[in-house]
Write a structure and sequence with these properties.
With 521 residues, the protein is an alpha/beta fold. The chain folds into three domains: 185 residues, 3-Layer(aba) Sandwich (Rossmann fold), CATH 3.40.50; 68 residues; 151 residues, no CATH class. Helix content is 48%, strand content 16%. It has a six-stranded mixed sheet, with helices on both faces. Strand 9 and strand 10 form a beta hairpin. Helix 4 packs antiparallel against helix 5 and helix 10 crosses helix 11. The longest helix has 20 residues. It is elongated. It starts with a strand and ends with a strand.
């Protein structure tokens, strides 16, 4: 029986997985055009699985040497000569793979080279260059080299010089035989490898891999991709699920990040949570509250890159629509890790799950400084009635506590901090049972829409800065549109108002058959 896989390479005969045929075909076109390029995507983004499928697709037209730097010890990177020898050893292993279709003449060249240099385990770069030329001349089909896990070499100058050698041969390829295509796969792109190795300003953008073509293949999953995977699962299990609805909901949470998609499916399947909205919501909650390699890596990257960390906090908390700038380093790094995307010129957190997890993380760090969290904990039991949240009462109590603690602050404070503190207040009330997320398309200086998922129920709360009655009416109209989308009859407004004539408190507005509860802070 197949299963959903979140560790290592996925195989179609063993795992429920997305059909990669179209993506592999796009990558093969780049190889056919003699292009050198980098497949750099975030951790657990399906790079190794894609490379495995690519090797099979290339086997009929090319001889493929697919190697990996994973597992090479530090001595392999001590000098250029050590790394060149380590790569020849990797070539020797790659030639044994069934799908590579490597010609015997090339195997012999690789094997003889390794034997000749085995005592010292070093190969001079000029000799290494000559061996590559001999391999390409002896091959019956054009040679392709794929290097997976290039991040393992990111701290070593020897790798940069190997890239320089490959670049030199590429530029002289009309007169010297060399690889038709070289593909590097890892999280970091080569420019950022150079940043890591050469932090001085004059070296930052002097990449040895400026010959590389842009890699624009979309490796994230879409609704049709997930539908195909779930169809395969449904043929085996006959659950009766609404495949399109389930696929759409999974994409809404994950934005197609391969690990997150597979992780949710695996959790639903193995824990029998149900292939419906409630089951997906429970799987999301379990994912957010467990330790796993994905979030461990995010946490480490936030520590490694404090500027990126601050950028993500600004996006989440300040209500700002941050404009994308391709030359800002914190944006480059966050986009390289697939933490953000460029959404029509503005920065957006790449997935709802990641955004919720970041709120959880920053909440723990920031909430220690506010008394609101303690008040929310004390008040918690009165907000839950028959398994549902009494959001109106939550807003009422928040207004009282907020006014007591922060009522004397200036307008700028309320604009920047008010919505964050409302989220802090809600968090301990739903903690461990529900979660919330922010609709990114509505995040701006005036308005933010918060969606709470709690025991299968959803609550839509618009948090906004009061800017007069006409703006308020527009806000009510926008909220009604959200209620239609979520099939709800009741919604909530939390307005931070600086008009001295408008009294704090809660009132209800009836618009047709919908009810809007507005709290004024």
């Amino acid at each position: 029986m197949k299963e959903f896989n979140i560790t290592g390479t996925c195989f179609p005969n063993r795992h429920y997985m997305v059909d990669l045929t179209s993506r592999v075909a796009q990558i093969k076109k780049m190889v056919d055009k003699d292009q050198y390029f980098c497949i750099n995507r975030g951790r657990q983004y399906g790079k190794t699985t894609t490379i495995h499928a690519l090797k099979k697709a290339l086997a009929s037209d090319y001889e493929v040497y697919a190697i990996s730097f994973e597992g090479l010890d530090n001595t392999s990177y001590e000098t250029d000569r050590h790394l060149a020898y380590a790569m020849m050893r990797q070539f020797e292993f790659a030639a044994l793979e069934k799908c590579n279709n490597v010609s015997q003449q090339v195997r012999d060249i690789v094997s003889d080279t390794v034997k000749a240099h085995k005592p010292e385990k070093q190969i001079d770069l000029d000799d290494f260059s000559m061996v590559i030329t001999q391999m390409c001349l002896a091959a019956q089909h054009p040679l392709i080299m794929i290097i997976d896990e290039v991040d393992q070499a990111s701290n070593y100058d020897s790798f940069i010089r190997i890239l320089g050698l490959l670049r030199k041969k590429y530029l002289a390829r009309d007169s010297v035989s060399t690889f038709q295509s070289v593909i590097l796969a890892g999280v970091y792109d080569i420019k950022n490898l150079k940043l890591k190795l050469r932090p001085e300003a004059e070296h930052q953008y002097n990449s040895p891999w400026n010959i590389a073509a842009n890699f624009d293949v979309d490796m994230s999953f879409n609704v049709k991709d997930v539908e195909g995977m779930l169809n395969d699962y449904e043929n085996d299990h006959h659950t009766g699920m609404d495949i399109h609805a389930v696929a759409q909901n999974i994409i809404d949470y994950t934005s197609g990040y391969p690990f997150l998609v597979s992780k949710l499916c695996k959790t639903i399947d193995e824990k029998d949570l149900g292939w419906n909205d409630a089951g997906i919501g429970e799987a999301v909650k379990q994912l957010l509250y467990e330790r796993n390699t994905f979030f461990d890596d995010v946490n480490k990257k936030l520590d490694d890159f404090p500027d990126m960390r601050q950028t993500l906090k600004d996006i989440l908390y300040l209500g700002e629509r941050v404009q994308y700038n391709p030359y800002k380093k914190s944006f480059q790094i966050a986009m390289m890790f697939n933490y953000i995307v460029n959404d029509h010129g503005a920065i957006k957190i790449s997935s709802r799950i990641l955004e919720t997890w970041l709120y959880e993380l920053f909440y723990v760090e920031d909430s220690k400084s506010t008394e609101l969290v303690s008040f929310a904990g004390f008040d918690k039991n009165q907000f839950i009635e028959n398994g549902e949240l009494n959001v109106e009462k939550i807003i009422q109590r928040f207004i009282v506590h907020y006014q007591d603690i922060y009522g004397d602050k200036d307008e700028k404070f309320h604009e920047r901090e008010g919505r964050k503190y409302f989220m802090f207040y809600v968090k301990p009330i739903i903690n461990g049972v529900g979660n919330y997320y922010i609709e990114s398309q509505t995040r701006d200086l005036l308005r933010t829409d918060m969606i709470i998922d709690y025991l299968g129920h959803q609550y839509v709360i618009e948090m906004k800065i009061w800017r007069g009655n006409s703006y308020n009416e527009r806000g009510e109209k926008q909220l009604l549109e959200y209620l239609d989308y979520y099939h709800l009859n009741k919604g909530y407004l939390v307005s931070f108002c600086f008009n001295k004539n408008k009294q704090p408190g809660v009132h209800t507005v009836q618009i047709g058959d919908r009810e809007i509860v507005e709290g004024v802070v």
